[in-house]
Amino acid sequence: MNCSISGEVPEEPVVSTKSGLLYEKRLIERHISDYGKCPVTGEALTMDDIVPVKTGKIVKPRSLTAASIPGMLGMFQNEWDALMLSNFALEQQLHTARQELSHALYQHDAACRVIARLKKERDEARSLLAQAERQAPLPASAATANVSALSNGKRAAESEDMGPGGKRMRPGVSDSIIAELTECNAALSQQRKKRQIPPTLAPIDALERYTQLSSHPLHKTNKPGITSIDINLSKDIVATGGVDSSAVLFDRTSGEILSTLSGHSKKVTSVKFVAQNDVFLSGSADKTVRIWQGSEDGKYDCRHILKDHTAEVQAVTVHATNNYFVTASLDTTWCFYDLSSGLCLTQVEDPSNSMGYTSAAFHPDGLILGTGTTGATVRIWDVKSRGNVANFDGHTGAVTAISFSENGYFLATAAHDGVKLWDLRKLKNFRSFELYDQDTPTNSVDFDHSGSYLAIAGSDIRVYQVGSVKAEWNCIKTLPDLSGTGKATCVKFGPDAKYLAVGSMDRNLRIFGLPEGDDASTES
């Protein structure tokens, strides 16, 4: 008789008292220990139900397959096939394991990205909370102040004190601030009387030999264009604002980008360094101004986001005290800010003026502010009284740039029709430069820090020697716009006029200066 499990003659036969079936003892013991039931009938079964069967010595018959060479070859073939099937199953399991591992790694990478984004949002929320705390409404003794409060990142308009006509009220410029501005003006005016041309200033014959020294691709290729430039004269760091919504800080000496400041949602229209405390300002077409604070590791963090304007911010200019600054916007207002707190002390709007502001600059002494408008008018303001004290007419098109000379007497303004020079003592235009054709506006003007040279940017870059009201202003150098766009948008003199930084409607910052060999011969 054969085993009911293996189908072979059992070596130790046993029989079930319940079913009467014959089994191999070792097989039924293992099955009962694993399942506890009969493998054939499925009834509950224990070893107590198993009875051994006594038989004579059993001699196993030889397997027919192993009795001949063809039978053995068949066995080997079967073993080989089983081995191949097992190998195939293992390969399938390996492929599945690899897919599961790849999926797990992808999920881990996605989780890391989500964590990084949440950390960034957390830091931004903390920054907004800190800003809200700094700009919390003033106490009852100063209830006239209206400071924008933030709640969960949104402006809490209901907490703002509104003045007549639904306009926000401002703390105003206090007597102590006016005294500070007046004291600064007196000190700078006194220094200006003793002012001398520095001996390290680049001479005229050096400027005549200026050529392009380098070109640096600072901004993105998909949104090319540099709209504004400023230079930290003490550190020789150049800042550029771009159409790509970012500002870039560039170390001219090493030729390396120090930091790329992102955060604005539209093009950056104006950039300015604050001479002290490693602070940087940027204004944008997204209607905001950002105050950036530098750190020891060279990175800049956004300390304040100012949202007091309702249209594009076109200009930012810093007062000589380095404690205050002004922003000018197309919303027909300009704002006077405290730098340390980011608080708008006053927002000036002239009811008789419906023209937005396109440019702005402080006079070197700090008590006069010049603004250019979309209506071709240059407006001069008394900073202490915030009153419009003079208007200069005569331009065609928007006034794109304003620059006061360090001598305190001259003002240069640029517009679609060229550049005009104004005598601030007599409040009149004494010279005009019509440099380009009717389709090419003049985009930028800049006096060097000594007041000896004037740079103008349009379809090319021209450098003039500063004369006087009666003496000629001679063009000593014309530099081509090498961007290929035909539009140089901004120009700035470096320290001692040793180089010119130029931005155009491509993404490159270009440095014009004297080659090293010529520089050595000039110094000798």
UniProtKB/TrEMBL annotation:
Main localization category: nucleus
Repeat (WD) residue spans along the chain: 261-293, 306-347, 350-391, 392-432
GO terms under cellular component: cytoplasm; Prp19 complex; U2-type catalytic step 1 spliceosome
Record-listed E.C. numbers: 2.3.2.27
Residue ranges constituting the U-box domain according to the UniProt record: 1-70
Keywords: DNA damage, DNA repair, Immunity, Innate immunity, mRNA processing, mRNA splicing, Nucleus, Repeat, Spliceosome, Transferase, Ubl conjugation pathway, WD repeat
Keyword Nucleus: yes
Spans annotated as Disordered: 132-172
Family that this chain belongs to: Belongs to the WD repeat PRP19 family.
Subunit structure: Homotetramer. Component of the multiprotein assembly MOS4-associated complex (MAC) at least composed of MOS4, CDC5, PRL1 and PRP19 which is related to the PRP19C/Prp19 complex/NTC/Nineteen complex identified in other organisms. Associated with the spliceosome.
Official protein name in the record: Pre-mRNA-processing factor 19
Lineage: Eukaryota, Viridiplantae, Streptophyta, Embryophyta, Tracheophyta
